[in-house]
């Protein structure tokens, strides 16, 4: 896989290039110091993937993505972002423009520390990108839709839970604005992201949605008409209460290397709602959410998985499908309709 490193920092160009050179099957075909040069080198070198700094002179990373957005053979991009308010805002914009994923620029005390962190963060994303490109060049693997695979003890759901990771911000930007203002369930989302980034994501989504979108704060009540996004770097619980359940933010350790974790939220939600839940697992790396969905299914909850063709990375939903936990498998543009059908009882009369 051919990679072009784009960064205005001499140090980061070297560190990223050195890290990529250690990944089997990856060839660093060049570097660029700003977005304008990057576009020239993309045309000359035809890379498959960019590592792309956001803030650069002459043309920034967002400008590069805008130029590439409508090109069918454009390379993918993994953004390198700073853990700041501005960095979070710009990164969410980059993801909305089609960037594959992002990593945080490390700020360790030594080059060795930064190199190790970059390798840890880049390796799974480069591997996931390679897999996604290979899959997109083929026909998606056929999967059974399991349209009648509903739990025998399914009940009318009282909450909708969504677990999502790589490709999530862009997917949520399509899904949530299509949900009507009278959708009767509160929606609670775990999107794998660091602190600050989830707040900026919630603010961006709230501008385009009929429902109210919030980053979760400790003690929030769970009410219909609202979408709650778990805060990055924390874990979120659902706590029983009267007349409404509430949300509790904790500093419990990661699960599945994730904080926030889908399994963590779903498992705690099951203690309150039992089987009266609709769970949706969408695009993302890994298998976070599979074990908790197994528990949810045993309680009578309904589980929906995003399909392979519309997933940026078919990891989390694939795990749900291959484990036999999916009641339905839907393309991204069909999930809102499926939510309505399941929530309003049209498919519960099996």
UniProtKB/TrEMBL annotation:
GO biological process annotation, one example: chemotaxis
Top-level taxon: Bacteria
Catalytic activity: L-glutaminyl-[protein] + H2O = L-glutamyl-[protein] + NH4(+); [protein]-L-glutamate 5-O-methyl ester + H2O = L-glutamyl-[protein] + methanol + H(+)
GO annotations of cellular component type: cytoplasm
Location of the protein in the cell: Cytoplasm
Gene3D superfamilies reported for this sequence: 3.40.50.2300, Methylesterase CheB, C-terminal domain
Coiled coil: none
UniProt-recorded name of the protein: Protein-glutamate methylesterase/protein-glutamine glutaminase
Organism whose genome encodes this protein: Rubripirellula obstinata
